[in-house]
Amino acid sequence: KLEKMELRDGNYELFKGLNIVRLVLHIGYPRTASTSIQDGVFSNEEYFLSIGKPRNNKTLFNFSNKLKRVSFIIDRDQFDLKNDLVDICNNDKRIVIFSDETIITRGNAFEIITFFKEVFDTVEILLTIRSQLDLIQSFYNYEGMILKDTPKSYRFNKVKFDEFFYYHKHHKVNNIIHSLNYYDVIKTLEGIVGENKVHILCFEDFINDKDYWSHKMSEIFLIDYNDIYNMTRIYSNKPRSSRYKEYKRIINRGVISNCISYAPIFIRDMFRKSVYYFLNSGKPYRVVITQDMKREINSTYREGNRALMQEYDINLEKYNYPL
Question: What share of the chain in percent tops pLDDT 90?
Fold first, then answer.
């Protein structure tokens, strides 16, 4: 049931009776094929009402953007936003999905989950995990080398993996490094939404064993296995090449973009197409990590992984998780 709210004399009044099937929050993790799942599985409008990262619906897109600021907006705005959610989901028989893999690392993750709990009777959470060593490498590859989220002192220079890791570990509270003790995170989430309401999938299964992964998704969403399997053929955000990383490093300085801005439109289009082809034809970028850094990452996460494997019966040894 949804809770329809009205504001009378400064007080909220709740009205029950608006039925939906289910709400599932897919809130993490980054670099675990989230975009592929969004583009492939959750974009199927026969089964899902996607309110997390809608591609073509302006109403849902605006709602999603407002929701990400939920801990920074006033009570009246939150009240209106909750009623917007009720109107969007009212009498819809599909599974309601809020899919945004960045939520797990955000400072307002608790507020966003609580926001949904105040509207829906039952909230479920879907997490896709990945070996921490591989995930951090991929995250660094995606953000660190293109200087998307690095210390100002490193701007316009290549950032070494060690510097990237220690910056996030010691200088920022809400970030990917701090959120990767999966066992603690899952226990915290269960404390919010309840036991058996947090579903766990492995990124490695999505890449290496689509059959097993599809069966797991089929069990979670109660959707025919064949339909799930056919939705997993999309693979977005493939690894970037070394050429692409170097290009992003340079273009972030504004040198190329400033020069191109004075060129005619048809020349700009030709340049972009040529550059795109050249950059994506290079060899994939490979992150080099020292043995000492590998040992530190392993020691940081192995205790939680052991508890996770034992209590939730997930075979982490299969994909070389830190144990």
Answer: 39
- This prediction has a pTM of 0.79
What are the start-end ranges of the H helices in the chain? 34-40, 58-67, 75-89, 109-117, 132-139, 161-171, 182-193, 203-208, 210-221, 225-231, 242-251, 255-260, 265-280, 291-312
The span from the first CA to the last CA of the chain, in angstroms, equals 42
Contact at 8 Å (CB) between 220 and 198? no
CA distances from 234 to 140, 144, 244, 251, 285 (A): 23, 26, 22, 29, 22
Kindly report the backbone phi and psi dihedral angles of residue 24, in degrees, each rounded to the nearest multiple of 5, phi listed first: -130, 130
Tokens of 53: 């990262």
Residue 251's pLDDT is 60
Reduce the DSSP state of residue 47 to 3 states and report it.
coil
Q: Reply yes or no on whether the pLDDT at 176 is more than 50.
A: yes
Neighbours of 310 (CB within 10 A): 10
As a whole number of angstroms, the distance between CA 246 and CA 264 comes to 25
Q: Beta strand 198-202 with 22-28: parallel, antiparallel or unpaired?
A: unpaired
* 32 phi, psi to nearest 5 deg: -130, 40
Task: Using the structure block, give the residue that is written with the tokens 């989430």.
Answer: 189
The answer to which of 12-26, 154-168, 179-193, 217-231 has the lowest mean pLDDT is 12-26
Dmax of the chain from CA atoms? 64
Q: Which amino acid makes up residue 288?
A: V
